[in-house]
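Exercise: predict the structure of this protein bound to adenosine-5'-triphosphate.
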Amino acid sequence: MSGAILGVETSCDDSCAAVLSAEGVILSNVISSQAIHDKYGGVVPEIAARHHLELLTPAIDSALAQAGLGLEQIERVAVTQGPGLIGALLVGVGQAKAIAAARAIPLVAVDHLQGHVAANFISPDSFEPPFVCLIASGGHTLLARVDEHSSYALLGETLDDAAGEAFDKGARMLGLPFPGGPALEALAAGGDSEAFNFPTARNVKGFDFSFAGVKTALLYAIRDLGEEEATRQRADLAASYQRAIVEALVERLERALDADGCGRVAIGGGVAANGPLRERVARLGLESHIPARNLCTDNAAMIASAARFLPECSPAAALALDAYPSGARR
Ligand SMILES: Nc1ncnc2c1ncn2[C@@H]1O[C@H](COP(=O)(O)OP(=O)(O)OP(=O)(O)O)[C@@H](O)[C@H]1O
Ligand SMILES: [Mg+2]
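Solution:
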Protein backbone atom coordinates (compact mmCIF):
# COMPACT_ATOMS: atom_id res chain seq x y z
CA MET A 1 0.00 0.00 0.00
CA SER A 2 1.83 3.11 -1.10
CA GLY A 3 1.34 6.33 0.79
CA ALA A 4 -0.43 4.84 3.84
CA ILE A 5 -0.65 7.30 6.75
CA LEU A 6 -0.61 6.29 10.44
CA GLY A 7 -2.59 8.76 12.56
CA VAL A 8 -2.08 9.15 16.32
CA GLU A 9 -4.40 11.16 18.61
CA THR A 10 -4.02 11.50 22.41
CA SER A 11 -5.23 15.04 23.17
CA CYS A 12 -7.69 13.98 25.88
CA ASP A 13 -8.74 10.61 27.30
CA ASP A 14 -9.04 8.50 24.13
CA SER A 15 -5.96 6.63 22.89
CA CYS A 16 -6.53 6.67 19.13
CA ALA A 17 -4.66 5.21 16.16
CA ALA A 18 -5.82 4.92 12.55
CA VAL A 19 -4.47 4.05 9.12
CA LEU A 20 -5.62 6.02 6.09
CA SER A 21 -4.77 5.33 2.46
CA ALA A 22 -3.06 8.04 0.42
CA GLU A 23 -6.51 8.73 -1.12
CA GLY A 24 -8.06 9.34 2.31
CA VAL A 25 -9.94 6.04 2.70
CA ILE A 26 -10.08 4.63 6.24
CA LEU A 27 -8.24 1.29 6.50
CA SER A 28 -8.63 1.15 10.29
CA ASN A 29 -9.77 3.47 13.07
CA VAL A 30 -9.09 2.31 16.64
CA ILE A 31 -10.37 4.23 19.68
CA SER A 32 -9.33 2.94 23.07
CA SER A 33 -11.39 4.83 25.66
CA GLN A 34 -10.30 5.23 29.26
CA ALA A 35 -13.39 4.32 31.32
CA ILE A 36 -11.45 5.09 34.53
CA HIS A 37 -12.43 8.79 34.38
CA ASP A 38 -16.17 8.05 34.78
CA LYS A 39 -15.87 7.68 38.54
CA TYR A 40 -14.30 11.16 38.85
CA GLY A 41 -17.06 12.83 36.77
CA GLY A 42 -14.48 14.24 34.34
CA VAL A 43 -11.06 13.63 32.82
CA VAL A 44 -8.15 13.63 35.29
CA PRO A 45 -5.15 14.87 33.22
CA GLU A 46 -2.41 12.92 35.01
CA ILE A 47 -4.39 9.67 34.89
CA ALA A 48 -5.13 10.22 31.19
CA ALA A 49 -1.42 10.62 30.40
CA ARG A 50 -0.48 7.46 32.33
CA HIS A 51 -3.18 5.43 30.58
CA HIS A 52 -2.05 6.63 27.16
CA LEU A 53 1.35 5.12 27.98
CA GLU A 54 -0.36 1.74 28.44
CA LEU A 55 -3.01 1.94 25.72
CA LEU A 56 -1.41 3.73 22.79
CA THR A 57 1.03 1.02 21.61
CA PRO A 58 -1.70 -1.69 21.58
CA ALA A 59 -4.00 0.78 19.76
CA ILE A 60 -1.35 1.33 17.07
CA ASP A 61 -0.75 -2.44 16.81
CA SER A 62 -4.52 -3.01 16.37
CA ALA A 63 -4.79 -0.24 13.78
CA LEU A 64 -1.97 -1.79 11.74
CA ALA A 65 -3.40 -5.32 12.09
CA GLN A 66 -6.91 -4.22 11.08
CA ALA A 67 -5.45 -2.39 8.06
CA GLY A 68 -3.51 -5.53 7.17
CA LEU A 69 -0.25 -3.59 7.11
CA GLY A 70 3.09 -3.83 8.88
CA LEU A 71 4.81 -0.75 10.28
CA GLU A 72 7.29 -1.01 7.40
CA GLN A 73 4.43 -0.26 4.97
CA ILE A 74 3.52 3.06 6.63
CA GLU A 75 4.91 6.02 4.71
CA ARG A 76 3.86 8.99 6.90
CA VAL A 77 3.04 9.50 10.56
CA ALA A 78 0.50 12.16 11.61
CA VAL A 79 0.09 13.24 15.22
CA THR A 80 -2.04 15.71 17.17
CA GLN A 81 0.34 18.42 18.41
CA GLY A 82 -2.33 20.39 20.35
CA PRO A 83 -4.46 21.84 21.80
CA GLY A 84 -5.32 19.43 24.59
CA LEU A 85 -3.99 18.08 27.88
CA ILE A 86 -0.25 18.57 27.70
CA GLY A 87 0.77 15.31 29.42
CA ALA A 88 -1.63 13.32 27.23
CA LEU A 89 -0.43 15.02 24.03
CA LEU A 90 3.22 14.38 24.88
CA VAL A 91 2.63 10.61 24.92
CA GLY A 92 1.30 10.68 21.35
CA VAL A 93 3.91 13.12 20.10
CA GLY A 94 6.73 11.06 21.65
CA GLN A 95 5.40 7.84 20.12
CA ALA A 96 4.90 9.38 16.68
CA LYS A 97 8.38 10.95 16.72
CA ALA A 98 9.92 7.62 17.66
CA ILE A 99 8.16 5.76 14.82
CA ALA A 100 9.05 8.43 12.25
CA ALA A 101 12.69 8.56 13.36
CA ALA A 102 13.15 4.78 13.54
CA ARG A 103 11.62 4.27 10.10
CA ALA A 104 13.08 7.49 8.60
CA ILE A 105 9.63 8.52 7.30
CA PRO A 106 8.01 11.98 7.42
CA LEU A 107 6.16 13.27 10.47
CA VAL A 108 3.20 15.67 10.13
CA ALA A 109 2.07 17.78 13.12
CA VAL A 110 -1.71 18.34 13.18
CA ASP A 111 -3.81 20.84 15.09
CA HIS A 112 -6.69 18.98 16.79
CA LEU A 113 -9.35 21.42 15.55
CA GLN A 114 -8.04 21.22 11.99
CA GLY A 115 -8.49 17.48 12.52
CA HIS A 116 -12.18 17.94 13.41
CA VAL A 117 -12.62 19.98 10.20
CA ALA A 118 -10.72 17.32 8.19
CA ALA A 119 -13.16 14.58 9.30
CA ASN A 120 -15.18 16.04 6.40
CA PHE A 121 -12.39 15.25 3.90
CA ILE A 122 -12.38 11.49 4.55
CA SER A 123 -13.13 9.41 1.43
CA PRO A 124 -15.23 8.09 -0.19
CA ASP A 125 -17.81 10.82 0.60
CA SER A 126 -15.37 13.70 1.11
CA PHE A 127 -16.81 17.22 1.13
CA GLU A 128 -14.71 19.78 -0.70
CA PRO A 129 -14.16 23.45 0.26
CA PRO A 130 -15.52 26.07 0.23
CA PHE A 131 -17.95 25.61 3.11
CA VAL A 132 -18.91 27.08 6.48
CA CYS A 133 -18.01 24.69 9.30
CA LEU A 134 -19.42 24.46 12.82
CA ILE A 135 -17.02 22.75 15.23
CA ALA A 136 -18.61 21.97 18.60
CA SER A 137 -16.70 19.79 21.02
CA GLY A 138 -15.80 19.33 24.68
CA GLY A 139 -13.30 22.19 24.73
CA HIS A 140 -14.21 24.36 21.73
CA THR A 141 -17.15 25.84 19.86
CA LEU A 142 -16.39 27.80 16.72
CA LEU A 143 -17.60 28.78 13.28
CA ALA A 144 -15.08 28.75 10.46
CA ARG A 145 -14.95 29.53 6.78
CA VAL A 146 -13.06 26.69 5.07
CA ASP A 147 -11.59 27.74 1.71
CA GLU A 148 -8.82 25.16 1.45
CA HIS A 149 -7.99 21.75 2.91
CA SER A 150 -5.09 22.93 5.07
CA SER A 151 -6.57 25.75 7.16
CA TYR A 152 -9.68 27.71 8.12
CA ALA A 153 -10.59 31.31 8.93
CA LEU A 154 -12.28 31.84 12.30
CA LEU A 155 -15.67 33.57 12.06
CA GLY A 156 -16.72 33.28 15.69
CA GLU A 157 -16.20 31.25 18.86
CA THR A 158 -17.62 30.77 22.32
CA LEU A 159 -17.10 33.57 24.81
CA ASP A 160 -17.27 31.16 27.76
CA ASP A 161 -18.12 27.42 27.89
CA ALA A 162 -17.93 25.08 24.92
CA ALA A 163 -21.18 23.40 23.78
CA GLY A 164 -19.86 19.97 24.84
CA GLU A 165 -18.94 21.37 28.24
CA ALA A 166 -22.52 22.69 28.56
CA PHE A 167 -23.83 19.19 27.73
CA ASP A 168 -21.45 17.61 30.26
CA LYS A 169 -22.22 20.06 33.07
CA GLY A 170 -25.98 19.94 32.43
CA ALA A 171 -25.84 16.15 32.45
CA ARG A 172 -24.04 16.24 35.78
CA MET A 173 -26.74 18.48 37.28
CA LEU A 174 -29.31 15.92 36.10
CA GLY A 175 -27.38 13.09 37.75
CA LEU A 176 -26.16 11.55 34.50
CA PRO A 177 -22.76 9.88 34.00
CA PHE A 178 -19.74 11.41 32.20
CA PRO A 179 -19.40 12.12 29.28
CA GLY A 180 -22.77 13.78 29.52
CA GLY A 181 -23.63 14.46 25.88
CA PRO A 182 -24.77 10.98 24.82
CA ALA A 183 -26.48 10.32 28.18
CA LEU A 184 -28.35 13.63 28.04
CA GLU A 185 -29.43 12.98 24.44
CA ALA A 186 -30.80 9.56 25.47
CA LEU A 187 -32.73 11.00 28.45
CA ALA A 188 -34.04 13.89 26.32
CA ALA A 189 -35.50 11.45 23.80
CA GLY A 190 -38.30 10.70 26.27
CA GLY A 191 -38.95 14.34 27.25
CA ASP A 192 -40.83 17.43 26.06
CA SER A 193 -38.38 19.95 24.57
CA GLU A 194 -40.95 22.78 24.98
CA ALA A 195 -41.50 22.19 28.70
CA PHE A 196 -38.92 24.76 29.79
CA ASN A 197 -37.84 27.90 27.95
CA PHE A 198 -34.06 28.04 28.44
CA PRO A 199 -32.08 30.96 26.93
CA THR A 200 -30.11 30.70 23.66
CA ALA A 201 -27.96 33.85 24.07
CA ARG A 202 -29.43 35.55 20.98
CA ASN A 203 -28.15 38.87 22.31
CA VAL A 204 -24.51 37.84 21.69
CA LYS A 205 -23.61 39.72 18.53
CA GLY A 206 -22.00 38.39 15.37
CA PHE A 207 -21.01 34.75 15.15
CA ASP A 208 -19.92 34.23 18.75
CA PHE A 209 -21.58 31.84 21.21
CA SER A 210 -22.25 31.84 24.95
CA PHE A 211 -23.38 28.83 26.99
CA ALA A 212 -22.90 30.15 30.53
CA GLY A 213 -26.50 31.46 30.68
CA VAL A 214 -28.25 28.24 29.68
CA LYS A 215 -26.21 26.33 32.22
CA THR A 216 -27.18 28.72 35.02
CA ALA A 217 -30.82 28.61 33.88
CA LEU A 218 -30.84 24.81 34.25
CA LEU A 219 -29.27 25.09 37.68
CA TYR A 220 -31.97 27.56 38.82
CA ALA A 221 -34.77 25.48 37.28
CA ILE A 222 -33.63 22.40 39.19
CA ARG A 223 -33.29 24.41 42.40
CA ASP A 224 -36.74 26.03 41.99
CA LEU A 225 -38.45 22.71 41.27
CA GLY A 226 -36.90 21.01 44.28
CA GLU A 227 -35.24 17.61 44.24
CA GLU A 228 -38.33 15.42 43.97
CA GLU A 229 -40.07 17.42 41.23
CA ALA A 230 -36.81 17.95 39.30
CA THR A 231 -36.27 14.19 39.32
CA ARG A 232 -39.83 13.64 38.09
CA GLN A 233 -39.32 16.15 35.26
CA ARG A 234 -35.76 15.07 34.41
CA ALA A 235 -36.51 14.06 30.82
CA ASP A 236 -38.34 17.36 30.12
CA LEU A 237 -35.44 19.33 31.64
CA ALA A 238 -32.94 17.39 29.49
CA ALA A 239 -34.99 17.81 26.30
CA SER A 240 -35.50 21.56 26.85
CA TYR A 241 -31.83 22.08 27.74
CA GLN A 242 -30.69 20.16 24.67
CA ARG A 243 -33.08 22.18 22.48
CA ALA A 244 -31.61 25.45 23.78
CA ILE A 245 -28.02 24.36 23.04
CA VAL A 246 -28.89 23.03 19.58
CA GLU A 247 -30.91 26.15 18.73
CA ALA A 248 -28.05 28.41 19.86
CA LEU A 249 -25.64 26.49 17.59
CA VAL A 250 -27.96 26.43 14.58
CA GLU A 251 -28.99 30.07 14.96
CA ARG A 252 -25.33 31.23 14.79
CA LEU A 253 -24.65 28.80 11.98
CA GLU A 254 -27.56 30.22 9.97
CA ARG A 255 -26.33 33.78 10.62
CA ALA A 256 -22.89 32.84 9.29
CA LEU A 257 -24.35 31.04 6.27
CA ASP A 258 -26.57 34.03 5.43
CA ALA A 259 -23.57 36.36 5.59
CA ASP A 260 -21.31 34.00 3.68
CA GLY A 261 -23.56 33.02 0.82
CA CYS A 262 -21.60 29.91 -0.27
CA GLY A 263 -24.59 27.70 0.62
CA ARG A 264 -22.42 24.81 1.80
CA VAL A 265 -22.18 23.63 5.39
CA ALA A 266 -20.31 20.97 7.38
CA ILE A 267 -20.07 20.14 11.08
CA GLY A 268 -17.57 18.41 13.36
CA GLY A 269 -16.48 17.81 16.96
CA GLY A 270 -18.11 15.55 19.55
CA VAL A 271 -21.36 17.54 19.80
CA ALA A 272 -21.85 16.94 16.05
CA ALA A 273 -22.70 13.36 17.11
CA ASN A 274 -25.91 14.77 18.64
CA GLY A 275 -29.02 13.50 16.81
CA PRO A 276 -31.19 16.65 17.02
CA LEU A 277 -28.26 18.83 15.87
CA ARG A 278 -27.57 16.51 12.93
CA GLU A 279 -31.27 16.61 11.96
CA ARG A 280 -31.42 20.42 12.18
CA VAL A 281 -28.33 20.84 9.99
CA ALA A 282 -29.61 18.31 7.45
CA ARG A 283 -32.92 20.24 7.31
CA LEU A 284 -31.26 23.61 6.54
CA GLY A 285 -31.93 22.90 2.88
CA LEU A 286 -28.31 23.53 1.90
CA GLU A 287 -25.57 21.30 0.55
CA SER A 288 -24.42 19.77 3.81
CA HIS A 289 -21.95 17.21 5.11
CA ILE A 290 -22.31 15.47 8.46
CA PRO A 291 -19.50 13.00 9.31
CA ALA A 292 -20.38 9.61 10.83
CA ARG A 293 -20.76 9.86 14.61
CA ASN A 294 -17.48 8.03 15.34
CA LEU A 295 -15.64 10.57 13.17
CA CYS A 296 -17.13 13.52 15.13
CA THR A 297 -15.85 12.50 18.57
CA ASP A 298 -12.07 12.22 18.96
CA ASN A 299 -10.39 9.79 16.56
CA ALA A 300 -7.11 9.42 14.70
CA ALA A 301 -8.61 9.01 11.21
CA MET A 302 -9.41 12.73 11.19
CA ILE A 303 -5.80 13.51 12.18
CA ALA A 304 -4.44 11.38 9.33
CA SER A 305 -7.01 13.04 7.03
CA ALA A 306 -5.75 16.51 7.95
CA ALA A 307 -2.16 15.37 7.39
CA ARG A 308 -2.87 14.59 3.71
CA PHE A 309 -2.99 18.34 3.10
CA LEU A 310 -0.32 19.61 5.54
CA PRO A 311 3.47 20.00 5.12
CA GLU A 312 5.82 17.40 6.54
CA CYS A 313 8.23 18.43 9.31
CA SER A 314 11.88 18.54 8.27
CA PRO A 315 13.88 15.72 9.96
CA ALA A 316 15.34 18.22 12.45
CA ALA A 317 11.93 19.78 13.18
CA ALA A 318 10.41 16.31 13.62
CA LEU A 319 12.91 15.43 16.32
CA ALA A 320 12.37 18.78 18.05
CA LEU A 321 8.54 18.67 17.79
CA ASP A 322 6.80 19.78 20.99
CA ALA A 323 3.12 19.69 21.99
CA TYR A 324 1.05 22.77 22.85
CA PRO A 325 -1.67 22.74 25.52
CA SER A 326 -5.26 24.04 25.45
CA GLY A 327 -5.40 27.80 25.41
CA ALA A 328 -2.13 28.12 23.48
CA ARG A 329 -2.30 29.39 19.93
CA ARG A 330 -0.31 27.76 17.16
N1 LIG B 1 -24.57 12.63 21.25
C1 LIG B 1 -24.02 13.71 21.80
N2 LIG B 1 -24.77 14.80 22.09
C2 LIG B 1 -24.21 15.90 22.65
N3 LIG B 1 -22.91 16.00 22.97
C3 LIG B 1 -22.12 14.95 22.70
C4 LIG B 1 -22.63 13.76 22.10
N4 LIG B 1 -21.59 12.87 21.97
C5 LIG B 1 -20.50 13.49 22.47
N5 LIG B 1 -20.81 14.73 22.92
C6 LIG B 1 -19.94 15.69 23.60
O1 LIG B 1 -18.79 15.91 22.82
C7 LIG B 1 -17.70 16.21 23.70
C8 LIG B 1 -16.51 15.36 23.30
O2 LIG B 1 -16.13 15.79 22.00
P1 LIG B 1 -14.64 15.65 21.54
O3 LIG B 1 -14.27 14.22 21.69
O4 LIG B 1 -14.46 16.26 20.20
O5 LIG B 1 -14.08 16.64 22.64
P2 LIG B 1 -12.67 16.92 23.17
O6 LIG B 1 -11.65 16.36 22.26
O7 LIG B 1 -12.68 16.53 24.60
O8 LIG B 1 -12.61 18.47 23.04
P3 LIG B 1 -11.81 19.31 21.94
O9 LIG B 1 -12.05 18.67 20.63
O10 LIG B 1 -12.40 20.66 22.06
O11 LIG B 1 -10.39 19.24 22.37
C9 LIG B 1 -18.16 15.94 25.12
O12 LIG B 1 -18.42 17.17 25.74
C10 LIG B 1 -19.43 15.12 24.91
O13 LIG B 1 -20.39 15.27 25.94
MG1 LIG C 1 -11.94 16.73 20.07
